[in-house]
Amino acid sequence: MLLVAPMTPVLLKGPASYIRSVLAPRFLARSHQVVILEGLWFGDEPLRGATTGTADQQQVIDGDIGDEDVMDCLLRRYSPGAIIHLTAVSNDPCSAIEPALTKRINLDVTAAFMLAAKGHGVSKLVNASSASAYGIKEEAACRRGPGFASTIGGALKFVIVLRPQD
């Protein structure tokens, strides 16, 4: 787990997923306050039954990471010690159908959020991804760069990591 002092807020972004369902209870077990930012595009069902903390320990916020006012308010209100960034358009069909939306979320919004987090003093930010960033390959996947990814979503995941942050 991240090296963050107990009781320090941890922000999970885009977490109505399996990864979130594993991370949130682990942070809660270590006495962290967990703040979940989720757009709830598909309703709140993915979060039902998966939240294990009390109202003081865990908050679920319905919001869009592309909304700079929401992000600024969240960063000011909770002052997270760490952020786990799970928000991305990553699977092949979605990336292919909406490449402009994929670029907006995976590159533009993520870069703006990273700069905002840095400006608010967040010292630990994990830009997580699933194996879908690599696509289906015969050989073993490794982080060789954007050319290795088979989708625009995967390629942009590499670009944001390699992009210099001011």
Keyphrases for this structure?
166 residues; 5 helices; alpha/beta
What do these coordinates show?
There is one protein chain. This protein has one domain (10-131): NAD(P)-binding Rossmann-like Domain (Rossmann fold). The protein is 37% helix and 13% strand. It contains five helices and five strands. The protein has helices at residues 18-29, 68-78, 92-97, 99-119, 152-162, and strands at 10-13, 34-38, 58-62, 82-85, 124-127. Strands 3-2-1-4-5 form a five-stranded parallel beta sheet, with helices on one face. The longest helix is centred in the middle third of the chain and has 21 residues, at 99-119. It starts with 9 loop residues before the first strand and ends with a helix.
How do the strands and helices of this protein lay out in sequence?
Layout: E1 10-13, H1 18-29, E2 34-38, E3 58-62, H2 68-78, E4 82-85, H3 92-97, H4 99-119, E5 124-127, H5 152-162
Parallel strand pairs: 1-2, 1-4, 2-3, 4-5
Helix pairs in contact: 2-4, 4-5
